[in-house]
Amino acid sequence: MTRQRHIVAIGGSSFNADPANPAAERYMLKLTRKKRPAVCFIPTASAEPAEYISTFTQTFARIGATPSVLRFFTRTPDLRETLLNQDVIYVGGGNTKSMLAVWREWGLPQVLREAWRRGIVLGGVSAGAICWFDQGVTDSWADTLAPLDCLGFLPNTCCPHYDGEADRRPSVHDFVARGLVSPVTALHDGAAAHYVGRSLHRIITWTPTARAFDVRQRRGVVVETELPAVHLPSDAR
Q: Which one of the listed residues 13, 14, 46, 126 is annotated catalytic?
């Protein structure tokens, strides 16, 4: 039996920013159809801070998961044994370029692709959202946004924090106009894109003003189109 492959890319306002309303995280757990799914957190992009890990562990335990953490800056366990026994793999935010460099040195992308093919739910926020696409719009460099080649599990480009940081929208429009990026899925804080296989299944939101957009060139003009969304209740069990 072929298992569905799920990726949930969260634009912002995840469990760390709003621990009282982890709606996107509940949504991811529901995709597993498990009573108490095993969830592994990969906080490489933020250099594995203790407070972030603690918030993850407390939040996911509270919403019905069995949490664990994969670390690269202490002694690192066997990646396949650790990750292929999970139901969800959740990647945190931070510096995407540095995160991908560490991952590639350890051979993690290959393990993540195997996990995806096995039907383990993948996802995350900010860096943990854009990493799955062909390209992402990142602030990994100080004082500037730039396109970055990512893992290529999903087609096109992703931009998180589309409403949360003032330079995001004009930068995306500029990159698209200059042909530096493929079509962009631009996500507000409080919005996420759920992909089944390599196709966008739906946009979900959990804050009142959150939106998502497709931004692309048509006949030499940058066109921004709002994507229809399903709004999750605050208690999205």
A: 126
